[in-house]
Amino acid sequence: MALSKFLLALAAASGAFAAKTCNVLNYGGVADNSTDIAPAIMSAYTNCVAGSTTSNPADTVLLVPSGTYALQTAVTLTNVADFTIEIDGALNLVFNASLTGTLFSFDDCNNIVWQGSGTIYGHGDLWRPGGNLGTYPSRPRLVRFQNCNNVDMSGVTLNNSPMFHVTIIGNNNVAHNMQIVADHIGETDGFDMSGNNNYVHDVSVENGDECVTVKTPTDGFVAENIQCFYSAGCNIGSFGNNVTGVTVQNIYYKNITQHNGDGGIVLKSYPTASGLVKNATYIDFTFTNIAYPIQVSDFWCPNEACPPTTGNLTWEDITFSSITGTGDNSTRPIIDVECISGYECTGIVFENVDLTKEDGVTATITVSNACGSGLSQLPAC
Ligand SMILES: *[C@@H]1O[C@H](CO)[C@@H](O)[C@H](O)[C@H]1NC(C)=O
Ligand SMILES: *[C@@H]1O[C@H](CO)[C@@H](O)[C@H](O)[C@H]1NC(C)=O
Ligand SMILES: *[C@@H]1O[C@H](CO)[C@@H](O)[C@H](O)[C@H]1NC(C)=O
Ligand SMILES: *[C@@H]1O[C@H](CO)[C@@H](O)[C@H](O)[C@H]1NC(C)=O
Ligand SMILES: *[C@@H]1O[C@H](CO)[C@@H](O)[C@H](O)[C@H]1NC(C)=O
Ligand SMILES: *[C@@H]1O[C@H](CO)[C@@H](O)[C@H](O)[C@H]1NC(C)=O
Ligand SMILES: *[C@@H]1O[C@H](CO)[C@@H](O)[C@H](O)[C@H]1NC(C)=O
């Protein structure tokens, strides 16, 4: 026997890998693509996981084994901790006009591992007939961890949610090594992150809205090795009309590629929002055909003229470093920095930023009410 096999056998015999598995097939789950899997997941939690966890989430595994399942209602787990949910099957969300909320919702949770080789198919196109986002405005979202800490999310592919894919709110959470693939349409956000010291790495997102984006409040966020296709970018915001108390700081993105998107790095706010975003660094980005490669704007008002400026949202100490590639063929500026008069953005730094236009036309840069270094348009502070 090879030494490694011997050690495995020994470990198994000594019970070192004695994880408790709570298989949904034993709690009413049927892999027939028609029985709703959600009640079986809830039952497996209540009747098998609950009360039998240890401090190690690997010891207690709620398993959806390979097979094809229907998903018709929401899985909502509140005040849960210390277990693994492993989805190896394919889950098909069944169209239902009354379905709202979030399909996998974890509230007040700690130390949860989400993993598996499966896929959740949201069939989002059915909630967007003819590409219309207004037909079912309360259509469901896929996964949300709210007030959750120490979550480790990976694996399971998320396919075409009716709305946003992943929202994580809490501290010390990680999402990694997973894929999101959706229609190239709005309101299909990939990862919306807020809280402290969260980390997203080695993920790819194809969609038509946020790729990996930071929301308020956040203190400490890192994103690395990200690929975005057709997305609206790796952004901060947006901060909407009259939002107060925005506080985002200590943000670091590195090694990001983005193809064919509306936005690359877009730091966006209405001119009526207030608060402070400071210390964000963007390094090693490669863009291809991005409508707004770099934009820092207090005048970001989608689908309407901006209301009169009453806010004071300020962007401070933002560094763009080693950023190359192309903006799209429109006349939009490749770099646009627009801050509020009287609340100038300070410490806006560009180093080794080499952006051109797809069609080789002159790339324009616009700057107002900001200071920093690295662009001739940007005055020193
Ligand atoms: C499962 O059902 C969905 C409709 O809810 C369908 O789109 C999908 O093709 C089915 N999958 C299989 C493997 O039959
Ligand atoms: C549709 O969703 C609503 C709300 O969750 C639920 O009450 C209803 O039973 C569902 N209908 C079907 C056919 O699943
Ligand atoms: C950059 O990210 C890509 C994935 O997008 C990965 O394959 C590559 O290894 C990363 N490079 C470094 C230097 O980490
Ligand atoms: C924002 O505040 C202004 C001034 O107080 C008010 O007129 C406007 O209705 C508010 N807008 C929204 C969307 O709340
Ligand atoms: C800025 O943020 C980075 C990344 O989060 C952090 O390492 C660094 O200490 C912060 N700098 C300051 C001055 O707070
Ligand atoms: C920004 O606006 C908010 C809300 O009106 C206010 O509380 C805060 O003091 C203002 N900050 C600055 C720096 O003017
Ligand atoms: C942009 O314009 C160039 C030159 O006309 C063309 O070769 C290229 O295909 C265009 N790119 C896109 C994405 O339309």
Question: Can you tell me about this structure?
Answer:
One of its GO terms (biological process) is cell wall organization. One of its GO terms (cellular component) is extracellular region. Belongs to the glycosyl hydrolase 28 family. The strands form two sheets. The chain has a 20-stranded parallel sheet that branches. It has a five-stranded parallel sheet with strand order 16-18-20-22-24, with no helix packed on it. Helices cover 6% and strands 50% of the residues. Residues 1-15 have low confidence and may be disordered. It has two helices and 25 strands. Strand 1 (20-23), helix 2 and strand 2 (60-64) form a beta-alpha-beta unit. The protein is elongated. The chain has 381 residues and is mostly beta strands. It has two domains: 19-191, Pectate Lyase C-like; 210-381, Pectate Lyase C-like (3 Solenoid), CATH 2.160.20. One 2-acetamido-2-deoxy-beta-D-glucopyranose (NAG) is lined by residues 225, 227, 255, 257.
What layout of secondary structure does this protein have?
Layout: H1 3-13, E1 20-23, H2 38-49, E2 60-64, E3 68-71, E4 75-81, E5 84-87, E6 90-93, E7 102-110, E8 113-115, E9 119-121, E10 141-149, E11 152-159, E12 166-169, E13 174-181, E14 191-206, E15 212-229, E16 236-239, E17 246-259, E18 263-269, E19 275-290, E20 292-297, E21 314-327, E22 335-338, E23 345-357, E24 365-368, E25 370-373
Parallel strand pairs: 1-2, 2-5, 3-6, 4-7, 5-8, 6-9, 7-10, 8-11, 9-11, 10-12, 11-13, 12-14, 13-14, 14-15, 15-17, 16-18, 17-19, 18-20, 19-21, 20-22, 21-23, 22-24, 23-25
